[in-house]
Amino acid sequence: MLRLRYDLACPGTPPARTRSAHRTFHLLPAVPALALVALSLGVLGDPRASAQPAVRNAGVIASASGETQTRFGPLTAADRDFLVKVRLAGLWEGPTGRQAQVRSGNPAVRQAGIHLVAGHAELDAKVLAIGNAFRVELPDKPNADQRAWMTEMTEADSSRQYDQIFVDRLRAAHGKVYGLVAQVRAGTRNSVIRTFSQRTMEVVLDHITMLERTGLVNWSILPLPPSPVPGASPGTNMVQTAHGPMTDSGRDFLRKVRLAGLWEGPSGRQAQERAGSDAVRLAGQHLIDGHAELDATVLQVGGELGVALPSEPNAAQQGWMAEMTNARTPQEYDRVFVSRLRAAHGAVYGLVAQIRAGTRNDLIRAFSQRTMEVVLDHITMLERTGLVNFAALPPPPEPAPGGTGDGRQFSPMFVVSILALAGALSYAARVRFYRREAGPHRA
Q1: What does the alpha-carbon distance between residue 178 and residue 353 come to, in Å, rounded to a whole number?
Q2: 210-257: per-residue pLDDT in tens?
Q3: What domains appear along the chain, each with residue ranges and CATH number?
Q4: I need a labelling partner for 413 at 20 to 30 A (CA). Which of 49, 302, 356, 389 fits?
Q5: Is the Cβ–Cβ distance between 263 and 238 less than 8 Å?
Q6: Which of 185, 202, 245, 207 has its CA nearest to residue 28?
Q7: Cα(71)–Cα(411) distance, rounded to whole angstroms?
Q8: Sign, CA torsion 155/160/165/171
């Protein structure tokens, strides 16, 4: 029987550098304030640009399309919605995590609560800083659904009932937002949102992992990933296996991983000969290594779950490979390579996140998490080539109509200063919380 194990790790982190969720959150806050300033400069753009006179005119400028232009790239309605959702999450998950320290009788639930408090102390400080800088109006209280969930927990008759409601409500909420944040990371054209959404993905995955470790997740009540067949029910063609139910979405996921390996691995090998840039060759090597691992695993998982897998790339993938082969110069090759591969990885990233969040099959859950780490590593390496045309990538889906920010100007140095302050406040808050609450539970 095939066995897969997965641990919490920052996506893209090599296995040798994987840490436990507990240690990750003890180490991340310990950054001196001056280092935070330097990090903020690196995150928010080229620090050399701050010395240029044009910076004073690089504020937020509203456009008729609903986008606002900033020196860090356009800010879309999807970007603003992402910030609002992060803020809303902190407004109920932080208090709920603190309540769990008093109401829960289960050490694993209390530990999950500690992670909620720590994670949202960090994210809340950052989202307030970013929202302020980009003039995005953020909420100051939970929404009606979140208040109802908090009331359910407060009114629980016993610690056991409290624990079950806690896990049910929080695991469902995190699963719902996970795919959305992945789509923002894959498609946003704003560098600040890109960096913050990636960190948000790591925190949300940590919370999902800690909730699952309680052993109380009721998989049958979680929404299934959407069917790949338009209009079909998510549960269509569900088959029971020794590892849990298998649906069309799980089978489609395995086929997509196999298809990716059939063209991305060869493209990575071709890049070692054809690329004009060391960064492109390095990205190609990551494709080779990542898909060697994923391809071996997908063949095993597909065999165990009875899923027939393709043996050659599809027509679109063959066309992309032909484009690279037909490139006339190394520079043209590099541009086609990065363009095609970054778009393909971005398209699949949100889909795999939905599988990780909603599948009820243990093998698919473990494999989808590892797949996300590999896909993000590839995205990161492609972006490091400096050749990604973010304006050409499909943007995240637009949210339902709602509030957005206004068009006032801001200073980039204001963003740096407020993020540094937010980081320091986040660190101080978490130190106080761990000293008060987490002593007996720390790893």
Answers
A1: 6
A2: 999 999 999 999 999 999 989 999 988 899 999 999 999 999 999 999
A3: 20-48+62-223+408-438 (1.20.1260.10), 239-392 (1.20.1260.10)
A4: 389
A5: no
A6: 202
A7: 10
A8: positive
